Structure formats: structure tokens, C-alpha cells
Amino acid sequence: MRFALPLALVLAGPAMAATPCGGDFGAWVVALKAEATANGIPADTADAFFAGLSPDARVLRADRSQGVFRKSFLDFSQSLISRDRLVRGRALADQWDAVFARAEAEYGVPRGILLAFWAFETDYGAVQGDFETRRALVTLAHDCRRPDLFRPQVLAALEMHRLGEFDLDTTGAWAGEIGMVQMLPGDILARGVDGDGDGLVTLKTSVPDALLSGAKMLQHHGWQAGQPWMQEVILPDTFDWALTGLETELPAEQWAAMGVQVRAGTVSNGIPASILLPQGRKGPAFLIYPNFRTLFEWNKSFVYVTTAAYFATRLTGAEPYLAGNPDPALSVDQMKALQGKLAALGHDVGAIDGILGAATRIAVQKEQARLGLPADAWPTVELLDKL
């Protein structure tokens, strides 16, 4: 049976104050080790876990250069979704049918969603990352960019090691995620599922453990059983583009009354929904339900989540999207210039990073409306010039 220290003890560290970030790395590790032992971790376990660690410059470079998310939705989705991935995903759905059926029965998460993240995170388990997880987590916890996120993850990985579920040579993604669906140690401790009944939660080697743990995590973050997440739609030419975007929710049947047509099936009456235009009014259009928003708990990238949600619909029978003919995407330099102008006007766009994230899209739409442009949240050279 799996016995863990209380999660609040592992993650919050009440016995000692949280170890501050930065400063001398060796001294910081000594302080964090003392914090861990004060919270119930055996000294020999902590000594073995922290032995020989040093900062990983490759992790820090990866943390500061996530250029793939600068791609447009069409470019990003076409680079991740291939016929081979579709065929393999559908074959795996059949191979692990009982596990997917259990995930939906117990946690309400359909197979398409789990398959999409399994595919995108690790190519169905084949590419799980070659970063040493201990070193990656300790590097990011010591770095002062996001210590509040990563310091608890170090302690969670240490607790997993105490349980026999984390080998010291465990490898994974640069940000410390582990296994076929790439979950952080804290999530594994809190919501890991022993899907194969061997008494351990091992997301690197056990498909049932990985898929059921991912399903439980999504349920925890609010996934609603039996509800949709995305449907492709066709909008009338006279549509009010200012109503699009995740900021506006209306009952799905109200969108239908405004002329929104679902390409396949019908709208889900009684459920709030939004209209999403990943590349503006000339590109694909989707009706987005609350379950879509839950996916941001798995990955914060707008283009990643939109692509994963779309791929999940493809895996469960949807036709390819109508790509349309969107206006050209801004270059990275142009996007940074636009973000700078938006920030100067008082909009919160987050980092000036050249990535069209949710905050930048909201600011773009507001300025489009102010300037009398079609307010579809897709930045163009025309908008940049007018600003």
C-alpha cells in the first residue's frame, strides 16, 4: 500500500520557513535539506536525494526560450498533428480501451483528451525527456523567476523518492514533469493513481497509471463529465467580432440563435460557451465550453491548449478544420513591438515575449474595437501601424 506524508506537510513545509531562492547554491541546498528533514524526511533519504547536485544551465536556457509557442495556431497545429499521430492514437484507443473506459467512468474525462496530451507531451510515451529531474527541479527552485512553483516540487519529488516511486536518475522534461503525460511531482503525489494495481504510481512505465492519473488531475481542476470542450463552427458574415474571445460567455443555444452553425452535431443547450477565433475572423472558428478552460491547468500556452483540444476532437471523429485564409501573422519583432505599444497604453500583456497569449489577445481586441477595426483579437500590421 502507498503511504505518503500528508501533502500539506510535503508541499507547504510548516515546520520551517520556506527556503529563500538565489544566493550560494551549496548553502541553499543545505538549507532546503534541513527544511525537508524537519518536515519528516529521514536524513539519509535527504542526503541521497540532494547529493552531487549542481545548477543545470540547459534548464535555465529552456525556461527562458519557449519559442515554439510563438507559432500561429495553423502552423503549430499542423506541426504537431500528422496522419501518423492520428492513426497511432486511434490504435492506442483500441489497445487500451478498458483503461480509457475506466478514466471516463471514474473521472469523466474522455479518451480524446487523454490521447491528445499523451501524444503532444511524449509522442505516446516514446519521448519523455532527457533532463535529470532532480537537478531540473532544484535548478528552477533556486532560480528566482518562479521559486514558489518549483520549491514545493523539489520536496514532492523527495517524498516520492521516500515512497520508492522516484529513482535518483529519473529523467523527464526540462521543467520537472515526469512520465507519459508529464505531470509534476506534486500533482503525482496528490492525484497519482495506481492504475495497474502494483502498489506504486509509475507514470514513466505504466500506461494505466499515467492515463488515470492525468484523468484524475483534470477532474480535480474542474473537468465536467459528459460535457463537450470544443466544436468547430461557421459564423455568419455579419457576426459581431467583438463578441468573440474567452471573455464573453453566452448559453450555447443563444449563439445558435445568432446564426452560429456547428459543423457536426448540435450545440449543447444550457451550457455557457465562447467563440474562439485562433487566427481571427478569416481562420478557423470554434465554440468553446467550460471544459476547454480546464485544459489550461495542464499547459498555460494558448496555442498549445487550443491545438490539444482540437486534436482531441479529431481523435474522436471530427473532420479537419476549415483553415480559411487568415491575415499573415506578425513576426516575432513585430509582435514584441505591438506588445510594447499595448503595454504603454495601459494593457496588461504580461511579458514582452513575442507570444500571442490570452492577455495579449484581450488587449488586441480592445484596441481593435477602439480604432474601428474588426475586433477579432488577431493582430495585424494594420493594427500595429495604427498604434
From TrEMBL:
Record carries keyword Signal: yes
Residue ranges occupied by any Peptidoglycan binding-like domain in the UniProt entry: 333-387
The entry's keywords: Signal
UniProt signal peptide: 1-17
This protein's record includes keyword Signal: yes
Transmembrane segments: none
Database matches in InterPro entries: Lysozyme-like_dom_sf, MltB-like, MltB_2, Peptidoglycan-bd-like, PGBD-like_sf, PGBDSf, SLT_2
Pfam family membership, one: PG_binding_1
Official protein name in the record: Lytic murein transglycosylase
Residues of the Transglycosylase SLT domain: 25-312
SUPFAM superfamilies, alphabetized: Lysozyme-like, PGBD-like
